[in-house]
Amino acid sequence: MSESGPEKDAWEKIAQILRRAVPRQQFETWFRGMRLIRLGPERVELSVPNNFLREWIYRKYFGVLRRALREVSGGDPEILIHIAEEGADSPPAREAFRPRAPVPPPAPRQPPRRSPAFGESDVVINPQYTFDNFVPGPSNNFAYAAALAVADSPGKSYNPLFLHGSVGLGKTHLLQAVCHQLVDRRTDMRILYLSCETFTNHFVTAVANGELDSFRYRYRHVDVLLIDDIHFLANRERTQEEFFHTFNTLYNANKQIILSSDSNPAEIPTLEERLVSRFKWGIVARIDLPVYETRLAIIARKVAMHGVTFPDDVVRFLAESVRSNIRELEGAVNRLAGMAHIYQRPVNMEMTRTALRDIVPPTPHRVSVDSIVRTVAEHFGVPVRDLMGKRRTKSIAYPRQICMFLARRLTPHSLEEIGGYFGGRDYTTVMYAFDKIRRAVKEDADLSQTLQQLTSRLKSS
Ligand code: ADP
Ligand code: MG
């Protein structure tokens, strides 16, 4: 293409309009490096030298640019702004329109957490939601590993990554951990993290204001798109339709898509089949309720973040009492840490029971694994520590099996949870112990009496 080709003339006209629309200095700064690659009634393709310029034009000058392009093209074309590849592989057509003006100012390096790469300024990225602060365990290992893999090589390992689980189990934490890691390692990536509600609201506004172009530009020109709580697409037909196209565009360009939801794709009500099937193309990872050991570890982590310590019985009490929601567990830790600070006193059990009465209703007759261990230890004259530890000598293994049996009978904990309590043992070990004691009771009158005694002591304490 020659210097006097149609694009060159068209660009001249567009530049003229832009010059009239913005102050000279601004034109020089923002539009000097822009080139027109293709001008058609359906689509206009432009390029700018770097991401920063593109982002800036997109944010501040998109309206001006669109008006100019409408005027020159005589239609309402879709606008695509590419980043010009400097160097050998630039096609000649682009070379033809390289401006002779000086290169625009280099993009200022911005602190990662405030980078526009995260998208809207109303999106809150929690600085603590990092991989480092995430405690893996059997309930979330798969999701954790998948998120790490995706953060390591976005668009190349699993696409899309679909995380699901009930509320408060770490979905948002993992999504944001991916953001942190990408920003820390690859500042050039365009990352867009937002809630499904924000996506929906943007779409509705874009439709109402006739700004679908810029909406599409915004969502289809990213390297990584993370949408939290995608189940909000339920009952939103038009947004689903739009998201379908967003998904396809990104997927086909090998861009990474990461979604979270409160249920697996097939269970999101009224979600179109074609979306359900796409959501399953990559990896679907479920996050379950954390087991006892993971809860202990999470509490330890959160307590340490407050720079305080809680006694072991308090930590165990928390881990036993708050089981279905890590956010609640965290709330309990925060409240206790706050009280310790206000009263200038170390946390103890009494304070804990009082502070958490609303979260953990006092249940005098509920038997805890903790009390089982203490009661059995006392009865057999063995140390509590050994019962919960790894030692396998018979003098310890037998009372430990009795603990497991009682825990299974008297508490609502799962086999996995009981195993976790006793030195991280497998659930099959608990099953074996339970079965062994259950059978032995039938033939051993002494054992039967012992168990009755222990049980009534536990229930009355
Ligand atoms: P969801 O998005 O699934 O509702 P969040 O990601 O908001 O849940 O998690 C709720 C809280 O629990 C957050 O403060 C988060 O840091 C914490 N949390 C969840 N899972 C873990 C974990 N495995 N390790 C540490 N903190 C966790
Ligand atoms: Mg969430």
Low-confidence spans? 86-122
Number of domain modules: 4
Cα radius of gyration in angstroms: 30 Å
Q: What structural class do helix, strand and pairing data support?
A: alpha/beta
Description:
- By secondary structure, the chain is an alpha/beta fold.
- The chain has four domains: 6-86, GMP Synthetase, Chain A, domain 3, CATH 3.30.300; 116-286, P-loop containing nucleotide triphosphate hydrolases (Rossmann fold); 292-355, Helicase, Ruva Protein, domain 3, CATH 1.10.8; 369-460, DnaA protein, C-terminal DNA-binding domain (Chromosomal Replication Initiator Protein Dnaa, Chain: A), CATH 1.10.1750.10.
- It has 21 helices and eight strands.
- It has helices at residues 6-21, 24-31, 51-60, 62-73, 92-95, 141-152, 171-185, 196-208, 212-220, 237-252, 273-279, 292-305, 312-321, 326-343, 349-355, 369-380, 384-387, 394-410, 415-421, 427-443, 445-460, and strands at 35-39, 43-48, 78-83, 161-164, 191-195, 224-228, 256-261, 283-286.
- The strands form two sheets. A five-stranded parallel sheet has the order 5-6-7-4-8, with helices on both faces. Strands 1-2-3 form a three-stranded mixed sheet.
- Strand 1 (35-39) and strand 2 form a beta hairpin.
- Helix 8 runs antiparallel to helix 9 (212-220) and helix 19 (415-421) crosses helix 20.
- The protein is elongated and about 100 Å long.
- 34% of the residues are buried.
- It binds adenosine-5'-diphosphate (ADP) and magnesium ion.
- Adenosine-5'-diphosphate binds at residues 129, 133-135, 140, 165, 167-173, 298, 301, 326-327, 330.
